[in-house]
Design a protein that fits this description.
Layout lengths: L1 H17 L4 H32 L4 H34 L5 H21 L7 H20 L6 H13 L1 H16 L9 H17 L6 H45 L5 H32 L6 E5 H11 L1 H7 L1 E5 L9 E5 H17 L5 E9 L3 E8 L6 H4 L20 H11 L3 E5 L6 E8 L3 H7 L1
Amino acid sequence: MIFVFIVLWIAALLLLLSGWRNRSARWLSSVAFCGGSGALASVLQEVIRPVVSVLGGTATTDESLYTAMTIFSLISYYGLPYCYVRFAGTYHGLPQIPPTWRWLHWLLLLPVLGMSLLYPYYPPNYDVLVYWAVPYIIIGTLLIVGKRGILPWEQRSHQVTMIAVVPAVLFAMVMNYVMPALGIYEMWRYNVWTITLAFLIFVTALFKSGFLGVQLYIERRQMDRTLRAITSGTAILNHAIKNDIGKIQLYCDKLKSTSDEGAEGALGEQIQDVKVIERAATHIQEMVNRVQHNTQDLVLRPEPVLLETLISENIEMLRPKLVQSGIEVRTSWDEDHMMMELVVDRAQVHEALHNIMMNAIEAMPRGGRLMFQRNETKRMWIVAIEDTGIGIPKDQLAKVMTPFFTTKASSSNNFGLGLAYCYQVMKKHGGTMRIESPPSSGTTVYLHFAKNKRASREAGS
């Protein structure tokens, strides 16, 4: 049970720290905490209390350990069903009418409070416990299994949740609640096998496909560190190059003014050389400005904006390129019913959309379809921009948002900053950006915009 206690509390901590803004992750963290509490209670009862007794522990110490064992045991028995059904409801995305939902929260908590008051000692009254704990777990399982409207990028995470969470909780329901109610005790010891399997699946998903957004958080941290380093580095580089360019331009002016006007041929050749130097200096300055523009910390100027309007404006702006490339544009919404109203920086979001659409056009040189789809959750608007182009090789997909990485090596004007800039725009607005590109199936960029006012708070910070 020591192993079970450790792995469950590690899982709870990882979920809490990595996905603390995700309500589903927070509730699943509480499920793992409750499961780990039961294992800790077993460790206190079967390992720590006997050891302390052998080492000469007092009656007061033993009573304290028994009290701790009872508390952790009841947290597990009473808390796990409640936290599980709350996780399932949040994960499923049940419609939440505020007054009704708050009332339901309290109603679900009543059996936990009642059992805590009526049966505050270990072991709990299994004959009463089974009548509400089992329905909670079954209802929660049905909600998880019945989750609908799963977006493509969520499918793998949903499969992991189904495999890792549901079997372990159902097995614990039988061993911890049903069997004791039938008079068969100590069956909870077999939970170690399903919990071990669930933990292995969780850890594997954590570093490969993601689990309730946890991998996305790790990717963000890596990207944020890279962007901060680049922001600092380009600021220093920009300062140094500007100083030297200033010197070059100063001496170019001096050469022009002090040239020997009598030596007409030499003068003409000298002026041409100076112009070459000036053009080179101007080119360097333009390159520095472009890099700095795409890597510097963004300052938002939020205002109410309809995302459909920004998308439509970009489509019209790029209409000549779309027609020239033979690309058909499709949107999944009626232009007369624009709904995605947010408070964002119009110019920055417009530019981000433009960059993504240009990438899609360049990926379809022989024509294709550019499709825009809209979805929503309680807190997010989700825009999917899908093309039928050549796609992104699997070995490059994880790198495309890394600054200075580009798949367009043949272009001297491409700095590999477009998608890094788009990521930065979404991050500053409290949203996320995700890219999928199945082999030979085009590319889809998912933009998640927060429905709250976080953009305005970011701008003011």
